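Tokens for chain A. Residues wanted.
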């Protein structure tokens, strides 16, 4: 005779001893997969609708199942549903509650499917919706960046390579670089969504089913583009989760790079930007401190999400076809990735709307690093001097500036002319910061009018 808990399990017929209590708790997933309840019910309603359409269920049975599932959903959302560890997962908890509510009709719901294709469908439904939410948060952050870029289209700051002052750029141009990085992230996620939007349901355990099901109809009911072609692949595939995690890792890498710049820029040593007090914290011992905790935490969370990607790849790397219990371990890293990615994007979109710039500090920093040296080289090339010779001339002029503690624009004309007679008094027009940025007046350049044109194109892309 089976123990009461064991007999509650739909698969208990083949077993002669109850599940060990620790094993039961160890193998259960209901503590974390219960968050899939809405998608599990959505998939079950579509499955029951298809079964009735095919004559496998009666219309009365379908109606009882649909009504019962809606009641279960209402109980869960009202916090009145008791989740059971012995019932293992979200699927068996809901099916058991349904059967208790409507009787034998509830036992017919699982006809023509398995938990293998059921969970694969649930996770796809859930992740599809989460991708839509994440894409919306990316767009919200992009809009915040466009507003900031437009406001600071004329603001000069030093552009860096190797974290050394390289050339003057505009702050608006820098924000538009972030915008483009996010645009690629958005495109990657939509591409992932396209591959994800294939329905496993109907693959059953691994080989399909003997019932005359209509998988295309179920797919249409659930908004999938098509049913999965191969039943083995349908139940064992987690490429979509890995691809999403890879896209999330790249996105978090971008946010981490943004964070690094904001942390540097908001430090006393740089002083380029001010973050709103709402997104910073203080020190428990040093009253003067204003710590950029939000960007620091986002930078830290990138490592967490990178780890989830490696974890999922490792999870799948040695699995034979088809479904294996290992795949239960896909959900917690995937759930955590989504939660932290959404949180990071939300806080960034909120924070960037309140960033303010210290124009004078930026301009002064751009003045100090010989950032217009390339402009002087270009000036000499326009005077007929080969670029490599111009490069050497400018290098010598910079060395003089270093010795005298003066920027190129501060060196007298006679000092510059000792390196080349081609230099005349018109050189100072190209050595100014504003002249330098204005000269980069082409598609993709840092000139303020090009920044504004890029913003206009970006807004049109978002509108389209």
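Reply:
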């Amino acid at each position: 005779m089976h123990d009461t808990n064991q007999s509650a399990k739909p698969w208990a017929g083949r077993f002669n001893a109850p599940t060990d209590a620790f094993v039961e708790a160890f193998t259960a997933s209901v503590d974390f997969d219960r968050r899939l309840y809405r998608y599990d019910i959505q998939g079950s309603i579509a499955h029951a609708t298809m079964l009735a359409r095919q004559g496998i269920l009666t219309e009365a049975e379908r109606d009882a199942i649909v009504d019962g599932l809606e009641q279960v959903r209402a109980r869960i959302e009202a916090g009145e549903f008791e989740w059971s560890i012995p019932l293992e997962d979200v699927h068996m908890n809901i099916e058991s509650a349904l059967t208790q509510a409507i009787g034998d009709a509830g036992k017919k719901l699982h006809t023509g499917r398995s938990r293998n294709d059921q969970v694969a469908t649930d996770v796809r439904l859930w992740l599809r919706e989460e991708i839509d939410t994440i894409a919306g948060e990316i767009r919200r952050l992009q809009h915040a960046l466009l507003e900031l870029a437009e406001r600071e289209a004329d603001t000069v700051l030093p552009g860096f390579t190797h974290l050394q002052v390289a050339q003057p750029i505009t702050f608006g141009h820098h924000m538009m670089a972030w915008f483009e990085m996010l645009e690629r992230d958005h495109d990657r996620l939509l591409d992932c969504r396209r591959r994800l939007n294939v329905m496993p349901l109907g693959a059953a355990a691994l080989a399909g089913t003997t019932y005359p099901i209509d998988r295309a109809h179920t797919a249409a009911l659930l908004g999938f583009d098509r049913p999965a072609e191969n039943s083995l692949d349908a139940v064992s595939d987690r490429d979509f989760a890995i691809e999403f995690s890879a896209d999330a890792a790249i996105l978090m890498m971008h946010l981490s790079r943004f964070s690094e710049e904001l942390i540097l820029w908001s430090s006393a040593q740089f002083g380029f930007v001010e973050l709103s007090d709402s997104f910073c914290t203080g020190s428990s011992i040093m009253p003067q401190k204003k710590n950029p905790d939000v960007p620091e935490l986002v930078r830290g969370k990138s490592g967490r999400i990178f780890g989830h990607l490696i974890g999922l790849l490792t999870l799948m790397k040695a699995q034979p076809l088809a479904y294996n219990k290992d795949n239960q371990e896909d959900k917690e890293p995937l759930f955590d990735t989504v939660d932290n990615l959404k949180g990071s994007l939300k806080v960034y979109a909120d924070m960037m709307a309140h960033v303010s710039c210290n124009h004078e500090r930026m301009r002064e920093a751009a003045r100090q690093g010989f950032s217009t040296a390339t402009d002087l080289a270009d000036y000499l090339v326009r005077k007929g001097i080969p670029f490599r010779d111009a490069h050497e001339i400018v290098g010598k002029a910079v060395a003089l500036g270093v010795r005298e503690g003066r920027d190129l624009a501060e060196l007298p004309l006679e000092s510059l002319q000792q390196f080349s007679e081609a230099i005349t008094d018109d050189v100072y027009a190209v050595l100014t910061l504003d002249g330098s940025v204005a000269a980069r007046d082409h598609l993709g350049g840092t000139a303020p009018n090009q920044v504004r044109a890029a913003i206009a194109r970006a807004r049109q892309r978002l509108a389209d």
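The CA atoms of residues 373 and 421 lie 17 Å apart. The first strand starts at residue 156 and ends at 161.
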